[in-house]
């Protein structure tokens, strides 16, 4: 239902020309109005929780849970013991909740500068803005409150990860360090996107170690490459696409800003195609041994999800297609997980 809602969303904004990132002055708001209408409901019941969930991009995070679940099933070759499954769900949710919050905390000042320079972000129909985008920078919650939220979930994730396998705890800490580096490199290099791809791959990597003490290095390499290509092509590039005009104002270095819309969109198509191709041997040769018809189903289903919006984005360079690509690509791991569940039930 969430995916269907995401895919029905449409954007009212129009794309800027390639290489031109001039902000639309008519849509700017005065810097003093950072606490915009998104925070006007602060007195309403349940708003505080919504703000914290927005900080952690929970709708997106819930879809991200499918990635580690896929890795666990593929690596183990079946369903892990129920206690491991239960603890794993808690750890994965806590880990993603903490890392997404960390992103907004480290980016707090740059996000605030961006809002002050270019005004309120009026985008709608975008999964990462399902609640409020950058609630910390908008003044919807305090920095100490955001840090406490992050630390609470990080501690839960670390304790649970250590209980599963100390390697998982190390990967969690590494993910937080790399996420911090990714944020701090915002105005330095667009190649920080490579760090983003690696951070997203650490979740599935930790899941593999949670269910098998010594997973195959070849399987791990294929797993990381699969997630890495999908993340940059289907998540990083389209996510930064919408902020390109605003990022250029504040000196941010992202793929769309540095490469331009045309080259960035073509790169997204290539990386998504690579990810789909890598999924074939990953599923077929994994310990789970997914059958050829189901491997084909995962491949064709994934192609249906990500390639149409990616190709249309490359052809039109429209913001709406970047949103569609991001939203639909976010559901790709969930589609693969559904195929793996079918494989378990029919195997």
TrEMBL record:
Q: Its Gene Ontology molecular function terms?
A: transferase activity, transferring alkyl or aryl (other than methyl) groups
Q: Which domain of life is it from?
A: Bacteria
Per UniProt, the keywords (alphabetical) are: Cell membrane, Membrane, Transmembrane, Transmembrane helix, Ubiquinone
Per the record, the major location class is membrane
Q: Which residues form a coiled coil?
A: none
**Localization:** Membrane
Name the residues that span the membrane.
Answer: 82-103, 141-163, 169-186, 267-288, 294-317, 329-346
| InterPro entries on file | UbiA_prenyltransferase, UbiA_sf
Q: Which GO terms describe its cellular component?
A: membrane
Q: How does it sit in the membrane?
A: Multi-pass membrane protein
The entry's protein name is Ubiquinone biosynthesis protein UbiA
The species this protein was found in: Solidesulfovibrio aerotolerans
